[in-house]
Amino acid sequence: AIERTLSIIKPDAVAKNVIGQIYSRFEGAGLKIVASRMTQLSRADAEGFYAAHKERGFFKDLVDFMVSGPVMIQVLEGENAVLAHRDLMGATDPKKAEKGTIRADFAESIDANAVHGSDAVEAAAVEIAYFFPALNVYSR
Ligand code: CMP
């Protein structure tokens, strides 16, 4: 089915100047960018976005990292988009990510792991609504 997923290019990958290379991978896999916005997240933005991880030991480090520099946030649309995007990203820990994935190629650590992607269709709907009012999503 045609799905949408939320993608974030994190501060490490923005700083490395690889937004275009990552966008090319999305497009090469048939994922269409239907919304995008560069922003520097506030602590409240990052804490709200990652609220599900609030009780995890890595929460503070995660929020500190996500507010450390600008991020590029986009909505990707396409066939099976949630899983297709996860396959492009590779495992959360770049040391475990398969060769040729975004995290294997661009990420340094489990915190500075280059990209975020929604893990399920239901989560994607919540994450997309968090960053993009419906009017700012441009499907064909
Ligand atoms: P992301 O997909 O953005 O979702 C939560 C983030 O927490 C994850 O990517 C990692 O960057 C970060 N993180 C740090 N430590 C862990 C961990 N042990 N398990 C999962 N995510 C972690």
TrEMBL record:
PROSITE patterns: NDPK, NDPK_LIKE. Keywords: ATP-binding, Cytoplasm, Kinase, Magnesium, Metal-binding, Nucleotide metabolism, Nucleotide-binding, Phosphoprotein, Transferase. SMART domains: NDK. Its main location: cytoplasm. CDD domains: NDPk_I. One of its GO terms (biological process) is UTP biosynthetic process. It catalyses: a 2'-deoxyribonucleoside 5'-diphosphate + ATP = a 2'-deoxyribonucleoside 5'-triphosphate + ADP; a ribonucleoside 5'-diphosphate + ATP = a ribonucleoside 5'-triphosphate + ADP. ATP binds at K10, F58, R86, T92, R103, N113. It is found in: Cytoplasm. Gene3D superfamilies: Nucleoside diphosphate kinase-like domain. The active site is at H116 (pros-phosphohistidine intermediate). GO terms for molecular function: ATP binding; metal ion binding; nucleoside diphosphate kinase activity. InterPro entries: NDK-like_dom (IPR034907), NDK-like_dom_sf (IPR036850), Nucleoside_diP_kinase (IPR001564), Nucleoside_diP_kinase_AS (IPR023005). It comes from the Bacteria. Its EC number is 2.7.4.6. Its cofactor is Mg(2+). GO terms for cellular component: cytoplasm. Homotetramer. Major role in the synthesis of nucleoside triphosphates other than ATP. The ATP gamma phosphate is transferred to the NDP beta phosphate via a ping-pong mechanism, using a phosphorylated active-site intermediate. This is Nucleoside diphosphate kinase. It comes from Rugamonas apoptosis. The gene is ndk.
